[in-house]
């Protein structure tokens, strides 16, 4: 897991974003996009195991999760695990080249962003309403 500090921002971006992506080049591209948009802290995890370990230590404000990782083919399981470790659930954005394959009940856990996408789409989602999905709705009840 790689963690970097970006410049402090006064905009409405989340302070800390965790990127769960096993493609190192894509992970670095996303990090650059986030830093340029003013995200203060970016954590990158390439595996579900790394992600779970980091979630035990820190709670990001948002997560960008690749649905198909090298060690787990259903990356949405990570979103389900977020609730297990407790705390305030982060905003979740799933990124995938096959959005039609995500079950409807899983899509409710966050926002689905179809690859390829423009950087502005990702930033728009992070700046928009903090959709935290089904798990957050359950916790409020």
Question: What is the secondary structure topology, with strand pairs?
Answer:
Blueprint: E1 2-5, E2 16-20, H1 24-36, E3 41-45, H2 48-57, E4 62-66, H3 76-84, E5 91-96, H4 104-107, E6 111-114, H5 119-127, H6 133-140
Parallel strand pairs: 2-3, 2-4, 4-5, 5-6
Antiparallel strand pairs: 1-3
Notable characteristics:
141 residues, alpha/beta, Rossmann fold, six-stranded mixed beta sheet, 6 helices, 38% helix, 21% strand, disordered C terminus, Response regulator receiver domain-containing protein, Sig_transdc_resp-reg_receiver, phosphoprotein, Bact_response_regulator
Write structural notes for this entry:
- By secondary structure, this protein is an alpha/beta fold.
- It has one domain: 3-Layer(aba) Sandwich (Rossmann fold).
- Helices cover 38% and strands 21% of the residues.
The radius of gyration is 14 Å
Biggest β-sheet description: 6 strands, mixed
Q: Catalogue the unreliable spans.
A: 4-9, 130-141
Number of self-contained structural domains = 1
Keywords: Phosphoprotein
Domain Response regulatory: 16-130
InterPro entries: Bact_response_regulator, CheY-like_superfamily, Sig_transdc_resp-reg_receiver
Protein name: Response regulator receiver domain-containing protein
């Amino acid at each position: 897991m790689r963690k970097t500090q970006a410049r402090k921002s006064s905009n409405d971006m989340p302070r800390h974003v965790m990127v769960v992506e096993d493609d190192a080049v894509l992970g670095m591209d996303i990090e650059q996009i986030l830093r340029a948009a003013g995200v203060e802290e970016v954590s990158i995890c390439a595996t579900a195991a790394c992600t779970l370990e980091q979630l035990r230590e820190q709670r990001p404000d948002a997560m960008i999760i690749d649905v198909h990782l090298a060690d787990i083919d259903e990356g949405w399981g990570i979103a389900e695990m977020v609730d297990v470790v407790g705390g305030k659930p982060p905003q979740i954005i799933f990124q995938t080249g096959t959005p039609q394959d995500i079950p409807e009940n899983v899509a409710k856990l966050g926002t689905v962003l179809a690859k390829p996408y423009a950087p502005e789409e990702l930033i728009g989602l992070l700046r928009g309403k903090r959709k935290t999905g089904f798990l957050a709705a359950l916790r409020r009840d």
